[in-house]
Write a structure and sequence with these properties.
The complex is a heterodimer. By secondary structure, chain A is mainly α. Chain A contains 6 helices and no strands. The longest helix of chain A has about 30 residues. Chain B folds into 4 domains: about 160 residues, no CATH class; about 180 residues, no CATH class; about 110 residues, no CATH class; about 100 residues. Classes of the chains: A mainly alpha, B alpha+beta.
Chain lengths: ~160, ~650
């Protein structure tokens, strides 16, 4: 399994807890084979409508989006795998068309920034906690017996 | 004439703010007369800006098209409400609304801040004055709303039809109250850095402003989401659009600030971090304003604007952020660390909350800006869209939701995790039971939706468990517990309600994402369609005329599971002046679920393409945040968060004196 497959798998898992997608696909475009149609919808959700504002082609009413939807279905009928369909579209329209950017040298910062941020934050907090512990140890006040007795009495009262 | 007076009032606001901020920032330490001037200047600015804004509204209401702005964004046949809201449905007018909101907050600080330490108040108001100078200057010099046209045209060119909706009356003002409210927190942070005084008074003051701003930002975002849902016509409620992101980031950081400010007020810890968050929240609000108005984004929200404005805004953004972080770098190291706490404690859990929220913000920020930077640096164009954000955001939210219920149960300083877990066991089990029952009853296929649903219930029940535990149900007589429950401090209630809101939102998001069903079909009048147990009959299709549009009017009779029939109306409008089309969806509410119908173009054989969705429990998505905002109001009304505390103490003192005297 390559990294991309793993991420796609993760994506499948987590999109369940995330915003849904609604369809502007037309009845006349739909494929008769429900399995192929389902795959076409899945692919369409990851493709950007090139002439609209941040919409995927499945939701868009633009003619260009309709062309892309038909193209996706043609490739599927021709027997392409999902990955091959995406490759085909990217080869024609550029990577701009993918809503989920591919992992590569140019997107490595994008993909690792979140884990990096989280890990460095966590490490920072870990050392902060350690420092606090030390500070606390050095600040520990040793009570006299008398004070200890008062403390015990106060504790009892508050219970 | 009124327009010129309005223009003049805006220039006066600018001038007064200029004098106020210069004098205030130089003499904040010394002179009490200057302190009083700075205070009064803030109040004057508000009334002047209000006058100038009302003058603008008046020109729109009477359709005075000699005002260039009214010509561009209004139309004489428009309904009155849209004439009024059209005032801020454009770049220039919305900047004036921004200034009005800013001066409103400043006046509020000036009026309610009488018992603030004078130096702190003067510093805060002077900083706010700098902002008024910046934005009023921006408005006057680059985006003047009062520009005239000569000769005056007879008719306007209409407001963008998508904006002709009640949503425009609520969404921008609420959002601005949120954005701009955080400027007060920002100025408090700057004042603290300049004066070097960060104490309990400071924290007590910042919290209510944080809560107020956060409430409005929450409401503004919810309103925006629901508006997009019913108006844009494809039933989505969140698109990870760059502009949505830029209003979501301040909300995320603001939420973090809300929580860290609690730690600071209660325990005098996390001072530096709280200041950092206060700066970040407003900086991200400014970044949002820049992104929307600079024209570098393509989005539903982007105002058409020229690069000069973008550059000026970028300069303002750079100035405020630059000053803030320079000050921060200079002064933060000298701040004394506050109260200590063990990792397992209320403070510890709030720090974790902040870590997750800050990381989520960073992820959204990077995702939003990455394509811009990549394009600028290498010329490569990529898109970062919903699939990317869904993935990164969900990964962060799952652990946050898991730890959330623990937070409210942990005690300050040092807590016993095992004891807390025992107390939460009931909530965890109940959530598990309900999740299993739901999935057994509905026979859903195996997926990860149960995890999402479970998390939603877990957070909801965890919040309720907090209330139950604190009112000692089962430990003392039932009636006593009920009494205790209603006497619990308001901040306990507001914590529980806000967290319940989070849980309900999660449940709504998951149910809609996992179980939404759709039926895309072609229908002739008289035909029926089925979806999720509802029968939808297409009854009417005809042309009608609205005040400033013509519309294709469609009616459906929807028969629900209980046999009752409701009428649903959907429209396809074309606005006369702009010849722009809009789609009005038919939405029927059944409990918390909705049926959403839109009608498309004529198909080849004369039938209509009809799209029908059933969205189970979708209302929870908006009901949750409304509950959070309500919890915010409740928390504000808590005596503990109120600013008048010193007064109360005085009263008590005088009462004591009386007792002694008698």
């Amino acid at each position: 399994m390559n990294i991309r497959r793993v991420l796609l798998y993760l994506l499948l898992i987590f999109t369940l807890a995330a915003p849904n997608t609604i369809y502007a696909v037309l009845p006349s475009e739909m494929l008769d084979d429900p399995v192929l149609e389902e795959r076409a919808r899945e692919i369409s959700k990851n493709l950007r409508c090139l002439v609209c504002q941040n919409q995927n082609i499945d939701e868009s009413d633009a003619p260009l989006a309709a062309d892309l939807r038909i193209l996706v279905r043609e490739r599927l009928v021709a027997g392409d795998s999902n990955e091959e369909v995406l490759d085909y579209i990217v080869a024609r329209y550029g990577e701009f068309v993918l809503l989920n950017p591919r992992i590569g040298l140019h997107t490595i910062l994008l993909w690792i920034s979140m884990p990096l941020f989280f890990i460095s934050g966590a490490v920072f907090l870990f050392f902060l906690a350690k420092k606090q512990k030390k500070l606390k140890a050095s600040n520990e006040i040793i009570l006299t017996e008398e004070e200890q007795a008062i403390l015990e009495r106060l504790k009892k009262d508050s219970d | 004439m009124l327009i010129e007076l309005g223009h003049y009032a805006l220039i006066l606001t600018f001038s007064i703010a200029l004098i106020q901020s210069v004098l205030g920032l130089i003499y904040w330490r010394k002179d009490n007369r200057i302190a009083e001037f700075v205070r009064l200047a803030a109040i004057w600015q508000f009334f002047l800006t209000l006058f100038s804004f009302l003058a603008l509204i008046y020109a729109f209401v009477v359709s005075d098209f000699s005002l260039s702005l009214a010509y561009q964004h209004s139309y004489s046949l428009q309904p009155l409400i849209y004439k009024i809201t059209g005032t801020w449905g454009n770049h220039e007018g919305s900047i004036l609304l921004w200034i009005l909101t800013l001066t409103l907050f400043n006046a509020a600080v000036a009026i309610f801040g009488k018992n603030l330490p004078t130096q702190l108040r003067t510093l805060v108001l002077s900083m706010q004055g700098v902002m008024v100078v910046a934005f009023a200057g921006f408005s006057i010099f680059t985006s003047n709303p009062f520009a005239r046209l000569s000769p005056a045209p007879f008719e306007g060119t209409d407001l963008n039809p998508i904006l002709q909706d009640i949503g425009l009356a609520l969404h921008p003002p609420l959002l601005y109250l949120g954005y701009v409210g955080f400027s007060v927190c920002f100025s408090f942070a700057i004042a603290a850095l300049i004066s070097g005084k960060i104490d309990a008074v400071w924290a007590r003051w910042v919290r209510p402003w944080t809560i107020i701003s956060w409430i409005f930002l929450t409401l503004g975002n919810v309103m925006g989401s629901y508006w997009a849902y019913y108006e844009l016509g494809w039933g989505g409620w969140w698109f990870w659009d760059p502009v949505e992101n830029s209003s979501f980031m301040p909300w995320l950081v603001g939420t973090a600030l809300l929580h860290s400010a609690i730690v600071m007020e209660k325990r005098n810890a996390l001072k530096i971090w709280t200041i950092f968050l206060a700066i970040m929240t407003f900086s991200l609000s400014l970044l949002g304003a820049f992104l929307v108005r600079s024209g570098i984004l393509t989005s539903v929200h982007a105002f058409a604007s020229d690069p000069t404005r973008g550059l000026v805004l970028l300069a303002l953004l750079g100035f405020f952020i630059g000053v803030a972080f320079t000050l921060f770098a200079l002064r933060a190291p000298s701040l004394r660390a506050g109260g200590l706490f063990a990792p397992i404690s209320r403070e510890g859990s709030l720090v974790l909350n902040n870590l997750f929220l800050a990381t989520a913000t960073a992820a959204v920020l990077v995702g939003t800006l990455y394509p811009l930077f990549l394009d600028a640096l290498t010329g490569e164009r990529i898109s970062v869209g919903a699939p990317f954000f869904d993935l990164t955001f969900s990964i962060l939210m799952v652990p946050l939701l898991i730890i959330l219920p623990f937070g409210a149960f942990l005690s300050w300083k040092r807590a016993d995790l095992i004891a807390v877990t025992q107390r939460l066991m009931g909530a965890a089990m109940l959530a598990l039971l309900i999740t299993i029952i739901i999935f057994m009853l509905t026979g859903r296929r195996i997926s990860l939706a149960p995890l999402g649903i479970y998390l939603g219930f877990w957070v909801s029940f965890g919040a309720i468990a907090d209330l139950i535990f604190r009112s000692k149900f089962g430990k003392i007589p039932f009636r006593e517990s009920i009494k205790r429950l209603f006497r619990l401090p308001k901040h306990i209630w507001s914590t529980a309600l806000a967290h319940l809101g989070v849980g309900l939102t999660v449940i709504g998001v998951v149910t809609v994402s996992a179980w939404e069903s759709e039926n895309i079909t072609t229908m002739q009048v008289g035909q029926n369609a089925e979806l999720a147990g509802y029968n939808i009959k297409f009854t009417v299709a005809e042309e009608r005329k609205g005040p400033n549009y013509i519309t294709e009017h469609f009616e459906f009779d929807v028969t629900g599971k209980n046999g009752k029939t409701k009428k649903a109306v959907s429209e396809k409008r074309v606005y006369v002046a702009s010849s722009m089309p809009t789609t009005e969806a038919a939405i029927l509410t059944y409990g918390l679920s909705q049926l959403y119908i839109t009608v498309g173009d004529l198909d080849v054989d004369g039938a209509r393409v009809v799209r029908i969705w059933f969205k189970p429990y979708i209302l929870l998505i908006w009901f949750g945040p409304l509950l959070m905002a309500g919890a915010g109001f409740l928390s504000l009304s808590d005596r503990k968060a109120r600013i008048g505390i010193p007064k109360l103490a005085k009263n008590r003192l005088s009462r004591n004196k009386k007792v002694k005297a008698s």
